[in-house]
Write a structure and sequence with these properties.
By secondary structure, this protein is an alpha+beta fold. About 45% of the residues lie in helices and about 20% in strands. The chain has two domains: about 5-65, no CATH class; about 70-120, no CATH class.
Length: about 120
């Protein structure tokens, strides 16, 4: 079974799948559980909706562009990042703050919860 995957313009949540002449809309909603346990994406079901060609033409714009990675820019930016990191290394000792693992876990979960609340607010 072959499947074509198309991206919807300005919408990272949905993908268009074309399987055996039928068009489906795949909902790639990210929940907090997928964020905390990324391997669950293979075991949890993703909603899939069959849509007509008319609905597709009316409501959605499809992007057929493949994302191209320019290796020259990637190598240049990696080198600049390493250079800046070496320049800022002495500041690392100045900002060293000791904390317990419990406090680290608390801040991590607080960050993820705030991020989840903000992204669910804009949906």
């Amino acid at each position: 079974m072959e499947c074509e995957v198309h991206y919807v313009i300005k919408n990272v949540r949905y993908r268009l799948l074309k399987v055996e002449g039928k068009t489906y809309l795949l909902d790639m909603d990210r929940s907090i559980w997928i964020t905390l346990f990324p391997f669950l994406i293979w075991s949890l079901p993703n909603p899939l909706y069959q849509i007509d060609q008319e609905e597709l033409n009316e409501k959605l714009q499809i992007s057929n562009n493949k994302k191209k990675i320019n290796k020259g820019n990637t190598l240049l930016l990696s080198g600049v990042g390493i250079f800046i990191a070496n320049l800022l290394r002495p500041l690392g000792d100045y900002f060293n703050v000791s904390s317990t693992p419990v406090i680290n876990v608390f801040f991590t979960f607080t960050f993820y919860f705030n991020n989840y609340c903000i992204t669910s607010l804009y949906k």
